[in-house]
Amino acid sequence: MSYAVALLILVVFLNRYVFGFYLRIARRRTLAARVTGYEPTITVVVPLYNEGASIYDTIISLVNLDYPRHKLEVTVVDDCSTDDSHAWACKAAREHPNVTVLQNPHNMGKRKGINRAVRRSRAEIIVSVDSDVIVFGSALRELVAGFTAPDVAAVGGRVHVSNPNANWLSKLQTIKYYFGQEHLKNLERSLDSVMCLSGCLTAYRRHVLIELEPILEDRNLLGVPIKYGEDRFLTHQIVKRGYRTRQVMEAMCFTKAPTTLTGYFNQQLRWKRSNIVDFIIGITDAWRLHPLVCLQYLSMMMLLVVYPFVIAVHAIEGDLVPLIALHLALLALLAMIYYGSPTVRRLPPWLRVHPIAFLPMAVLMPVAYLLLTPLGMFTLDTSSWETRGHGKLARPALRP
Which of 124, 9, 7, 128 is nearest to 62 (CA)? Predict the structure, then answer.
């Protein structure tokens, strides 16, 4: 491994685990700040495509959240699902008057569907929830409490894996989600400049979404429409315009992790494309970010490009085993951090997994970087939702 690559990895490590941790401690009072008595009107928007019967459970969980019914509405936007998702959503709407189901005239993509619901809404806050997500009961109150100032435009929640012990792959992702939520965004969270608030659960000021609508509607790369990675793109645009973005760890939701390698690599490919497009479009504006966030952004971009070449060179030179051994040692250290974390120990047993489950990442991570990074670069024009199709067999098929 060259000194340049080693230096790059060191910069990424310091930013994420040292500077971020220091800022988290130094600004713990700011991170804990909450506004009390704020109870705005909310529209929860659920973009839908081929989730089957599970969309019904998602909607029911939303209407039963701990928030005044007269200030809460749920809008489901079906992007021309080819299964019985629309019928299940309509069933929930018939049972609950504050649920509305819209169906796009043709497959428009997730962002345009959300924009349609935002235009229709008159609520002060828009909460985006993915169609396979179950939201914790107090999450809405925790999210709105995070809007501590007018320049806070978006507040995201924490994502847990709802099926952590399904198999070895879901266990691995449970630990991966833990680090993604608990450590890797420490620097961005401490500076109120989170660069990607998850579509699983994020609240936005509606007027900011209306302000950004022309850019969101016309998102493209060299004239090619881009329909994926809308949460990352939206968050970046919000930060670019000088607004603050926050993450509130007390606002929790649960999403199902893929339990097959096909589902896992589809997910990782979608995320790789999202990262690549974000870096291509956002590099010219990186200077607008806080210096530490800018350094993290640029170093992550360089790592995304350089790391596949590092793996390829090691493979060609027959030196791949030592590289995997290095990964294994690092992952073992991270697994022990997970195991000893007070945050993890406070979780109920069904949300925890054995730390040894993280070790297969020593193989999955190099494979993902080596294969999916170039594949993502050559498939940036895809328009697929790549839905994981959770829950289609959870209930019998429902006909309109």
Answer: 128
Domain that holds residue 162: 1-400
Task: Name the nearest CA neighbour of 290 among 321, 244, 331.
Answer: 244
- Our separate counts of H helices and E strands in the chain read 17, 10
The closest alpha carbon to 181, from 356, 344, 34, 60, belongs to 344
Please tell me what DSSP assigns to residue 128: E
With CA atoms as reference, report the closest residue to 78 among 100, 110, 48.
Answer: 48
Number of separate domains in the chain = 1
Taking a C-beta distance cutoff of 8 angstroms, is the pair 130, 57 a contact? no
Residues 184/270/254/35 CA torsion (nearest 10 deg): 60
pTM of the model as a whole: 0.89
Q: Which CATH number goes with the domain that contains 377?
A: 3.90.550.10
Per-residue pLDDT of the chain (400 residues; tens, 9 = 90+): 567 777 777 888 787 778 887 788 877 777 778 888 899 999 999 999 998 998 998 999 899 999 999 999 999 999 999 999 999 999 999 999 999 999 998 888 888 889 999 999 999 999 999 988 999 999 999 999 999 999 999 999 999 999 999 999 999 999 999 999 888 888 899 999 999 999 899 999 999 999 999 888 888 777 777 777 889 989 999 999 999 999 999 999 999 999 999 999 999 998 998 888 888 888 888 888 888 889 888 888 888 888 888 888 888 888 888 888 888 998 999 999 999 999 899 989 999 999 999 999 998 988 888 888 888 888 887 755 544 444 443 444 444 3
